[in-house]
Specification:
It is a single chain. The protein has one domain: TIM Barrel (Alpha-Beta Barrel), CATH 3.20.20.150. About 40% of the residues lie in helices and about 15% in strands. The chain is built from ten helices and eight strands. It has an eight-stranded parallel β-barrel, surrounded by six helices. Strand 1, helix 1 and strand 2 form a beta-alpha-beta unit. Helix 4 packs across helix 5. It starts with a strand and ends in an 8-residue tail after the last helix.
């Protein structure tokens, strides 16, 4: 089976040293192999507080990053690079394996037009520099594709793939998310198959962000696509049980979740294992 992961916001509403350790303990207790840690403010993230508990839990670590508005990569590439290198420095201390997320642009920031050639060129050049910094630290970058309501630089897997291919650094991969695919793609199977050469990280997130399997996403098509793409990266559950005002504003979650963290974790992990086994996903992990 592949590595099964969960986003920390399944258990906590924000990452602090104390709450973060609670999420690590919960992920380990629930039986996950990987925890995705949001490093949204690297200056306020203290990796030394988590080293021992992570070592004891033996969890793979992915750090998710989102650029702040004043470091939107097409507008401020140097600011974006400085921010992301801070995230990489913190991840290196806790032996992070992945940096994932929408780290090529600021979430919810728009120009009012499609991306220009100049914006894309700046993004490719900057990502190349960041990817080489990550490569020196042994960290794989996985560039997440978000829907049109959260970003404009790229919104489909193919658009992000073109950026990744242009960057040309082997540790830059594609981060797909079923929730965003549900809005932007013409199905699930073919987009995953067509990006098989760069696909490195997968968010398993339901159409309503809650309990997987209770929404409208065609999960058979998702997992059939992953299997035929010979995907061997992590399968990471992204459900939100604990939502603070900042997270609600970013993800547009205006209703309280229907299920507790324990239910989302236990039932979600069963769901991941069932579909991974059903479609024979590889034991090998990228």
């Amino acid at each position: 089976m592949p590595k099964f992961g969960a986003h920390a916001f399944l258990w906590i509403d924000e990452w602090t040293s104390e709450k973060g350790n609670l999420a690590i303990e919960a992920a380990n207790k629930a039986g996950f192999d990987l925890i995705e840690i949001p490093i949204l403010e690297p200056d306020k993230f203290f990796p030394e507080a988590h080293k021992d508990i992570l070592a004891g839990a033996n969890l793979v670590v992915a750090g998710s990053a989102v650029l702040p508005w004043d470091a939107h990569m097409p507008e401020n590439p140097e600011g974006a690079k400085r921010f992301l290198i801070k995230v990489l420095d913190k991840l290196e201390i806790i032996n992070g394996t992945y940096m994932v997320g929408c780290f090529a642009y600021a979430l919810g920031k728009f120009s009012g037009a499609p991306p220009t050639h100049h914006e894309l060129d700046v993004t490719v050049h900057t990502l190349r520099e960041v990817a080489r910094e990550a490569e020196r630290r042994g960290i794989t970058l996985c560039l997440e594709v978000l829907n049109r309501y959260e970003g404009y630089l790229y919104t489909t897997l193919q658009e992000a793939r073109s950026i990744i291919k242009a960057v040309g650094v082997p540790n830059l991969k594609l981060h797909a998310d079923a929730y965003h695919m549900n809005i932007e793609e013409e199905g699930y199977y073919r987009p995953l198959l067509e990006c098989a050469d760069v696909l490195g990280y997968m968010h398993i997130s339901e159409s309503h962000r809650g309990l997987v399997g209770t929404g409208t996403i065609n999960w058979d098509d998702v997992f059939r696509g992953l299997a035929d793409a010979h995907y061997s990266g992590p399968l990471v559950l992204e459900s939100f049980a604990a939502v603070n005002p900042a997270l609600a504003g970013a993800t547009k979650i205006w209703r309280a979740p229907k299920h507790s963290s324990d239910v989302l974790a236990s039932e979600g992990l069963k769901f991941l294992k069932h579909y991974a086994e059903k479609y024979g996903l590889s034991n090998e992990v990228k």
